Please model this.
Amino acid sequence: AVMDWLASVGVGAAEAHAHAHACQRAFVEALEAEGAPLRRDDLVVGLDEPRRANFLAFRRPDAADLHARLMAADIVTDVRADVLRFGFGLYHAADEMGEAARRVAAAMG
Model:
């Protein structure tokens, strides 16, 4: 039913993917503006790669610690070994990425 509704409003996989990428770019730019410890250089797949998934993966030796700090602040992420991942989807708004980055930066101390 959801897929039918999305199709009826003109949102397909390509549009959802483009939206996620726009949110990712806004999020990374806002993280940089906030001075968060996550850097563009930490990305496993860079923002310029059009075939990247709808999540950002930051390779960090302290990924597990950062994940724990974020979870303590009710910010849900995924961690796999030394990679901290943030997912983006249709339920995110690009204009909310500044606030998201502010909260992430604050949780990371």
Q: What stands out?
A: The longest helix spans residues 13-34. The chain has a mean pLDDT of 94. Residues 56 and 78 are 10 Å apart (CA to CA). The radius of gyration is 14 Å.
